[in-house]
Specification:
22 strands
Length: 366
């Protein structure tokens, strides 16, 4: 695990071969359970790392809006609804325990925070208002802005996107990309890093100021982890290397757009419910204790009911940055996932093994 600064706006975590960008403004609270630290975000997403809370305390608690009400928690005062005698109620509805020893200190700190003029509360509200001022999306296919100075690369990725029904606008430089962004609506921006003039990271910062609503995905031949971390730090939501197979490329782009443009965050398959914002799976109203990878697998294969996914495809969707291990990690996680589903609902087999081919999701017939 590594922690990288993000210009005082947050930090980027590198966990094995995955990276997560955590913004202070969007961090609701942090908790530690056993040896796992969970970052609960304001958009209901949860990021988790194997670490100790002490690994993050100094950086987070250095900011005035954060305090520690309990040895296992750090909260963001911007997201607090009320402070009681035994627990803190967050605006999301979560209850955070408040230790007796810290009760007076936390209550006084919250009162001071609420009474301060021009505090981070106002800044957060202004930011939320700006983000909510999303322009109305035009009717029709998804519109994608593709920025790359290499004409052959532009044409190749444009063909992939157009084959899936997208409208693609091509830009060969950062200046052209900014001009397109000023005049039109885009469901997604695909941005090369090494473009003439300002590099893609700099252009991403400027696009993010104008297009808070659109996911920006870096599409680059640079595969170094440091470059990917930098992409997340400046506002990118994903980083796709140019050696990525076309179908995996499309799967990533499609997923990012669907999560952005759709208000639907819960999917029902008979007794099974997948909640994308909470990252929870419920079976007949009871939460399934799935690992992050198990939840990702279930979400990916359930998006395409009846389709057979090979182990290689599942590996690429969940562990795309790691070298292929022959399918062992997929087999292990799939075995655990199937047992949990079957134990929770014995009447139906949600994941079917198609021998010699792979796995497919089979919903309950309603």
């Amino acid at each position: 695990m590594a922690i990288h600064d993000d210009n005082e706006q947050g930090f980027v975590l590198k966990v094995r071969n995955r990276v997560f960008r955590i913004l202070f403004a969007g961090l609701e609270y942090v908790e530690v359970i056993n040896k796992t630290v969970f970052f609960h975000l304001a958009d209901n997403a949860v990021r988790e790392v194997t670490a100790a809370l002490a690994d993050f305390e100094e950086k987070i608690l250095a900011r005035p809006e954060f305090l520690k009400p309990h040895r296992s928690y750090i909260i963001n005062l911007n997201h607090v609804e009320s402070v009681g005698s035994n627990f803190i109620v967050m605006k999301s509805g979560h209850n955070i325990p408040l230790s007796r020893q810290r009760r007076n200190q936390v209550q006084e700190a919250y009162m001071r925070f609420c009474n301060q003029e021009g505090t981070a509360v106002a800044a957060l509200r202004e930011q939320t208002t700006a983000i909510s001022d999303k322009p109305k999306r035009p009717q029709g296919p998804w519109r994608i802005l593709l920025v790359d100075d290499d004409q052959a690369e532009r044409n190749y990725w444009a063909d992939v996107l157009q084959s899936h029904g997208c409208i693609v606008h091509l830009a060969g430089s950062g200046g052209e990309a900014l001009a397109f962004a000023a005049d039109g609506f885009y469901d997604c921006v695909l941005l090369d890093v090494m473009i003439p003039g300002e590099d893609g990271f700099s252009i991403c910062r400027r696009l993010r100021e104008r297009m808070t609503y659109a996911p920006i995905i870096f599409l680059s031949c640079l595969t170094e982890a440091e470059k990917q971390l930098e992409g997340f730090a400046v506002g990118g939501i994903d980083y796709i290397t140019k050696d990525t197979p076309a179908e995996l490329f499309w799967a990533k782009v499609e997923t990012r757009i669907r999560l952005t443009v759709s208000d639907r965050t819960q999917f029902y398959y008979g007794p099974l419910v997948l909640d994308l914002t909470e990252r929870k799976a419920l079976m007949d109203g009871k939460e399934l204790l799935l690992s992050s990878a198990e939840f990702d697998i279930l979400c990916k294969i359930s998006e395409h009911v009846g389709r057979i996914f090979t182990p290689e495809e599942i590996f690429g969707m969940v562990w795309g940055g790691q070298p292929w291990d022959g399918g062992q990690i997929v087999q292990t996680h799939m075995s655990h996932l199937r047992r949990k589903l079957e134990k929770a609902w014995e009447e139906h087999q949600f994941i079917e093994t198609v021998w010699g081919k792979g796995y497919r999701f089979v919903p309950v017939d309603n």
